[in-house]
């Protein structure tokens, strides 16, 4: 393989993908120049444009929906469309559109490799899995790149692909597998909030060292189109130079800008209904797009009190058929600022309603829309996450960030960042701590891709790295050998197999607990993670844990091939965890009576779908 | 007979001399054979492609094909917002537009020798030679880069927007 020429960062986002690149021939990470690759894609049948982002949508057109050759790209024709045209056509024909594949990829309750998308697809449609869709986006970017740079194909470059910090091990593994199946060779995974921080570092051209000091704890709040991702990064010192350590990541919160725009659109729909105008479903979609622009205008311009929104007609009489309304500051404050970012106390609990039993297959959207409550819960939960950071004082009821950085398209509405900062400062003041400094200057749409390209660059050993390792401790559930009592759940023990912060390329010491595997049959184990119990060593068995300390993930599956053994025989094995070069967790089962190794499936076939 | 005074005759003679000098100058220019270039038809597919983009993003054709006299200014204004936003998007995405001259309008400007008459149009009292002094009336616009979407071979540009039938 020839030597890599470019450092590449790929933001494989829920709503759009961005690819950023930098020449590896540059010397100094502090002066790194990178740029966003314009991705060729269909923008209408028979039309191709190169755009700075690839919308993460896959549309499978009906044979008679598209003229001959109209799915042609500069490198050949395809059967389905990815990108801008897919998004636009899907807005009118949602049953043939796959969107939010990334959210499905992190949904532990479904089989992420079974073809069930689009959910409401017509019978004749060849459905796809969330994994296939993610692969299609990567494949498209790779082909577009290779077409533009035939001498430096993507598979030979140093590539970093970003994932949410809150992605579970299965979703990380699938993302890595998708990249592998697409043929990317030298790639690694990076958490998105870290990528955003790298982008800030790159943009500061070395001045970041003046803006943070040892003992600082940076809260990264990343509010994307569909998800909210939280991380804490501590600043330490090693051999005289500043070090960054990712000390905690938040839970997976399926809540983002799209929810806010839809909430605004609904508020306006009700206002119009009172005035006697009923909206059609298609108008609601156009209205929510209008609300997003209006939201950005209102929050960035304090002089405006209302912004007009026009929902264009579908038919050709634009003037008669369009609907004019407006978004007022009061509505915005009520719905978005107070609805999604209410002024709550640090002791606010995230509200969880019990789900009704008959929920249809759907994404597990956050039930509590208040992002400030999620932040409060995260900071309380992670009170002790920076205990061993020099210069950081642990006291009170929550961990005290000293700096905050925002990322994600939603933050373009400036009032949102201001509200989060003021709520956080209120909590800090209450417990006698000083206000946070706001780390500014990143490009909210491209920071993740740019930061990932920067990371690809410094992986060659040319700059500061954020240390992190795996974002949680992991446990396998063992059912205890107690007699079952009717009406009582069988007590379960949690057996630690990997501890928080294990770094890439390391393996956990081999614990002595044995598991019995039935030969030739898949055996499932319950699987847990904890972002709080960071000091548990592999081999530790927990009989009891506090509520919220451990979170159950999708079960893991071990499948012992029957070759050379009696089917049905029970073989004792030990479990060993390693963190591979990608930074993803791998589990292997080692039989006591041989030197074979079996890979343990982290991404299991879920019960649903 | 027309009686002409001496001074009148003198001034007439002088005028003749001066205008002869001017005419010589002009004649010299006209003596060169005018440059001839072949005429080509305007770029039809480019025009139709732009029209389709303006319709797709800004509903421009819908707007113009409607009879505005029957609507109130408020209704026309609301639709104009759609057109303005969409047309602005097309212009900003496919063209890099900048003013030809960057000075403020209504300020006095000097136009140096050798300027391109396609770029700067002289009007009013057009006489003499460069450098010209004048007032900037309109800054002009130019597109330093134009990048329209690629289309497949055989694309039917005459369809500005397809009819839509919901099933």
Structure description:
The complex is a heterodimer of chains A (609) and B (167). With 609 residues, chain A is α+β, with helices and mostly antiparallel strands. Chain A folds into four domains: 6-190, 2-Layer Sandwich (Nucleotidyltransferase, domain 5), CATH 3.30.420.40; 212-254 and 357-449, ATPase, nucleotide binding domain (Nucleotidyltransferase, domain 5, 2-Layer Sandwich); 257-340, Actin, Chain A, domain 4 (Alpha-Beta Complex); 473-600, no CATH class. Helices cover 26% and strands 26% of the residues of chain A. In chain A, the strands form eight sheets. In chain A, strands 1, 2, 3, 6, 12 and 13 form a six-stranded mixed β-sheet that branches. The model of chain B has no long low-confidence stretch (mean pLDDT 86). Classes of the chains: A alpha+beta (609), B alpha+beta (167).
């Amino acid at each position: 393989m020839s030597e890599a020429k470019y450092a590449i960062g790929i933001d494989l986002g829920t709503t759009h993908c961005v690819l950023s690149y930098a020449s590896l021939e540059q010397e100094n990470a502090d002066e790194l120049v990178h740029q966003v690759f314009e991705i060729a894609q269909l923008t209408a049948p028979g039309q191709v444009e190169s755009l700075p982002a690839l919308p993460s949508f896959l549309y499978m057109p009906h044979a008679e929906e598209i003229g001959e050759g109209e799915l042609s790209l500069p490198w050949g024709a395809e059967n389905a469309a990815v990108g801008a045209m897919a998004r636009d056509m899907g807005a009118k024909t949602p049953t043939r559109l796959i969107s939010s594949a990334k959210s499905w990829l992190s949904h532990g309750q479904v089989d992420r490799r079974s073809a069930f998308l689009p959910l409401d697809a017509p019978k004749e449609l060849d459905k796809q899995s969330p994994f296939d869709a993610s692969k299609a986006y990567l494949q498209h970017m790779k082909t577009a790149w290779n077409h533009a740079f035939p001498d430096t194909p993507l598979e030979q470059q140093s590539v970093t692909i970003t994932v949410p910090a809150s992605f579970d091990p299965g979703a990380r593994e699938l993302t890595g597998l998708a990249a592998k199946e697409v043929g990317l060779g030298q790639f690694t995974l990076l958490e998105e909030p870290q990528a955003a921080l790298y982008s800030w570092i790159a943009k500061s051209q070395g001045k970041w060292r003046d803006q943070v000091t040892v003992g600082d704890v940076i809260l990264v709040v990343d509010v994307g189109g569909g998800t909210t991702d939280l991380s804490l990064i501590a600043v330490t010192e090693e051999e005289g130079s500043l070090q960054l350590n990712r000390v905690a990541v938040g839970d997976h919160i399926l809540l983002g800008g799209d929810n806010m725009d839809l909430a605004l659109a609904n508020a306006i729909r009700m206002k119009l209904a009172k005035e006697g105008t009923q909206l059609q479903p298609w108008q609601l979609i156009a209205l929510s797009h209008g609300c997003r622009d209006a939201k950005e205008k209102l929050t960035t311009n304090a002089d405006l009190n209302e912004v007009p929104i026009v929902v264009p007609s579908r038919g050709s009489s634009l003037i008669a058929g369009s609907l004019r309304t407006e978004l007022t500051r009061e509505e915005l404050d009520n719905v978005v600022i107070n609805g999604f970012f209410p002024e709550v106390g640090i002791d606010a609990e995230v509200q969880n309603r019990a789900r009704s039993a008959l929920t249809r297959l759907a994404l597990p959207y956050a039930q509590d829309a208040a992002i400030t409550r999620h932040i409060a819960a995260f900071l309380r939960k992670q009170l002790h996450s920076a205990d061993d950071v020099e210069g950081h004082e642990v006291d009170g009821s929550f961990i005290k960030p000293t700096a905050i950085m925002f990322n994600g398209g939603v933050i373009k509405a400036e009032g949102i960042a201001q509200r989060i900062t003021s709520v956080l400062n209120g909590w800090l003041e209450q417990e006698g701590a000083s206000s946070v400094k706001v780390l500014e200057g990143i490009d909210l749409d491209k920071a993740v891709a740019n930061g990932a390209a920067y990371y690809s660059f410094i992986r060659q050993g040319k700059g500061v790295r954020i240390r992190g390792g795996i974002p949680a401790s992991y446990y396998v559930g063992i059912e205890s050998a107690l007699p079952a009592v009717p009406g009582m759940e069988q007590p379960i023990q949690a057996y630690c197999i990997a501890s928080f912060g294990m770094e890439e390329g390391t393996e956990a010491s081999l614990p002595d607990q044995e598991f019995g595997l039935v030969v030739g049959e898949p055996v499932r184990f319950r699987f847990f993670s904890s972002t709080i119990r960071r000091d548990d060593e592999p081999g530790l068995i927990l009989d009891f844990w506090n509520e919220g300390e451990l979170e159950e993930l999708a079960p893991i599956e071990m499948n012992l091939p029957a070759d050379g053994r009696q089917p049905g025989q029970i073989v004792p094995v030990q479990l060993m965890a390693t963190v591979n070069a990608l930074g993803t967790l791998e589990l292997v089962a080692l039989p006591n009576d041989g030197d074979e190794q079996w890979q343990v499936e982290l991404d299991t076939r879920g019960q649903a779908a | 007979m027309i009686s002409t005074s001496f001074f009148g005759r003198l001034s007439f003679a002088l005028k003749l001399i001066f205008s002869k000098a001017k005419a010589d100058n002009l004649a010299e220019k006209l003596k060169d054979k005018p440059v001839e270039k072949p005429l080509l038809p305007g770029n039809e597919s480019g025009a139709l492609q732009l029209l389709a983009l303006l319709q797709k993003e800004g509903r421009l054709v819908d707007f113009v094909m409607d009879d505005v006299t029957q609507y109130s200014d408020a209704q026309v204004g609301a639709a104009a917002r759609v057109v303005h936003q969409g047309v602005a998007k097309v212009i900003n995405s496919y063209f890099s537009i900048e003013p030809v001259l960057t000075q403020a309008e209504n300020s006095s400007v000097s136009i140096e020798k050798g300027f391109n008459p396609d770029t700067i149009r002289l009007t009013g009292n057009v006489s003499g030679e460069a450098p010209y002094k004048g007032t900037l009336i309109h800054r002009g616009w130019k597109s330093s880069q134009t990048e329209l979407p690629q289309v497949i071979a055989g694309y039917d540009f005459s369809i500005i927007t397809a009819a839509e039938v919901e099933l």
